[in-house]
Amino acid sequence: xxxxRLLILIxxxxxxxxxxxxxxxxxxxxxxxxxxxxxxxxxxxxxAGWTGPTRAxxxxxxxxxxxxxxxxxxxxxxxxxxxxRELERSVVQVGRQxxxxxxxxxxxxxxxxxxxxxxxxxxLLAFPVTxxxxxxxxxxxxxxAHGLLPHEEARDAVDLAAALQSAVLSVIGPxxxxxxxxxxxPQHFFDTATDARRSWLWxxxxxxxxxxxLLASRPQVDPERIGxxxxxxxxxxxxxxxxxDARVKATVAWSAxxxxxxAARATPVPGWExxxxxxxxxxxxxxxxxxQGFLRTLDPSxxxxxxxxxxxxxxxxxxxxxxxxxTAKTYDTLRAHSQGHRLFLxxxxxxGPIADRVIDHLRPLIISDIVYWFAKHLGTDDAFRERAPVPxxxxxxxxxxxxxxxxxxxSRVDIDLPESxxxxxxxIEIQVxxxxxxxxxxxxxxxxxxxxxxxxxxxxxxxxxxxxxxFADAVYRPPGQVRRIRVSSRPHLPPGFNPKIWxxxxxx
Length: 508
What we know:
Elements: H1 3-12, H2 15-28, H3 73-76, E1 85-94, E2 97-112, E3 115-128, E4 139-145, H4 153-164, E5 167-171, H5 186-189, H6 200-217, E6 221-231, H7 233-242, E7 248-254, H8 261-264, H9 273-278, H10 289-297, E8 311-316, H11 324-337, E9 342-346, H12 353-378, E10 392-403, E11 406-416, E12 424-433, E13 441-444, E14 446-449, E15 452-457, H13 462-466, E16 469-477, E17 485-488
Parallel strand pairs: 4-5, 4-6, 6-7, 7-8, 8-9
Antiparallel strand pairs: 1-2, 2-3, 3-5, 10-11, 11-15, 12-13, 12-16, 14-15, 16-17
């Protein structure tokens, strides 16, 4: 913005500044030159320090749009401004499949000072080699977004493209790798005091939707069959895109939810949102304008009522950023406004060092649920066309559990499947936590005939069990498939529940 334009804006004064800011949003979109790629700035863990410039605060017109109002969809949807450039291509062998992997760059947007600007970002596009020559059968597409720092972009793109026989675009967020833009340090992530569009999360969400535009413009992709997948803050962006962009036909949010204030205000250990706010310069609190502005505008909870297409939430039961009560409230809110959503809660999985150690073991389970969700809702494999019923805990009654020390009172839990399915029911179990979701113990249920199952929970009377956290898991096997589908019930949370969050022991 030139000095003259800035002086004109200041001259309007008062409410006119807001109006001028809205005009600037429309007028200046697409008029800023795309910068050259920045040096790569990869980090190994989400707690590593950032280097490089920090955006200086400026006095700009305040903009307090909420939910989908934050995004100018006419700009998001415009394919002619993508300016896609192919940088490299290679072929990767996955089992018997050959997957074409292209490195691309394209144009998206972030807020620079008081107006949006173009930035050039990088991405990896993977799809089966055969799709490049076969234009008759167009592929489904998935946009995949990383969290606060990039991780497994190439691996996820190639593996999912092979498993889904689809096109997968793994985007590299602003400020990372060779992508231009402000990175995701706390100073940028929570820059929401006067305009949520200044946040890195806004730019990452814009990037996800611009990725949908890119996939929709590819000759190999069916624009009516595109989904989004995100991990951590990328999962937040996926939920934001699902509630903003009607082109999104299915969503998977992995280790993500809305209602972040439930984590931030947990005691005695708060969620790491508090640590991120303290990492700002100067440090901020939960009463700061930045945090309150984030909750009011960019928290995914603001977008859930607008979600129309089905969402799969995959989350650790001990997640420090998105604890079980935030996940449950996100799930409840989605189901209050639309149908077909599913939840997969993973016992013994967090958002920190435990996840780092167990992810290689859990990855096949998580990928299987991701493949099921997109295969079903984007129509990539008829084997996954059936619905996976959500197990329902129907009754808790008093029972006796007998062992070497004699018989003691315990609980019997009756679990039903609400409908029959062509999938084989491989396992039904209940997960129970008596320490406010800090740890869970699983107990397998036995069939009692038809769609009904039961399990005894030793050492807990019915009243003690109802004061605990518990949920049911169902494991299904589609006919002819090795992959399993895992679906959880909505977790039971006792009144006044406060999650005992595991501290993240990694070095900052």
